[in-house]
Amino acid sequence: MNFNEFQTTGQVKKVTKDLSLAKSLIITSRQDLEFLKDLEINDVSARKIMSNYYEVLRSILEAIAALDGYKIYSHEAFTYFLIEKKEEIIATKFDRFRKIRNKINYYGKNISIEEVNENVTEILNIIKKLEQKYTSKV
Fold first, then answer.
1. Which of 3, 34, 86, 109 could form a disulfide with 103 if both were Cys (CB 3.0 to 4.6 A apart)?
2. Topology of 3-135 in CATH?
3. CA nearest 133: which of 63, 30, 56, 77?
4. DSSP assignment letter at 87
């Protein structure tokens, strides 16, 4: 599969670049990060915190896609969007987080506090890199 195939199937659409959408997604993502940073990661909260950090990362990717003139309807397509942008390492990590989130949300899987802590650190580093590279001028 590649990014063009997602366009062919309608899971990605080429649209007009949307600066206002990108700005809005970046602002709400920052607000979400501010909210999440003070939450305690424990056995009860770990699943939801992991899912929410993933959603913030996905929102940043959606903002970048909006700046590039894409509307992406498939979480999996974001992996190939990153590959298209020559961000293979981030793409691999994003896909891993996507699968973790899917296991949590759709299959009732648990996740350890330690794994959430590690993933949150990675996600925050990825967000920082993506924002510096793609959204710093927004």
1. 109
2. Four Helix Bundle (Hemerythrin (Met), subunit A) (1.20.120)
3. 63
4. -
pLDDT at position 1? 87
Nearest to 26 by CA among 52, 61, 76, 53: 61
Domain ranges of the chain: 3-135
User: Tokens 């063009």 label which residue?
Assistant: 4
**1 class by beta-carbon count within 10 Å (0-12 exposed, 13-18 middle, 19+ buried):** exposed
For residue 75, what is the DSSP state? Answer: H
Angle of CA points 64, 132, 31, to nearest 5°:
70
Structure token pair of residue 135: 């959204």
Place of tokens 């899917």: 102
Residue 57 near residue 90 (C-beta atoms within 8 A): no
* Cβ neighbours of 121 (radius 10 Å): 11
Query: What are the pLDDT digits (tens) for 111-133?
Result: 999 999 999 999 999 999 999 99
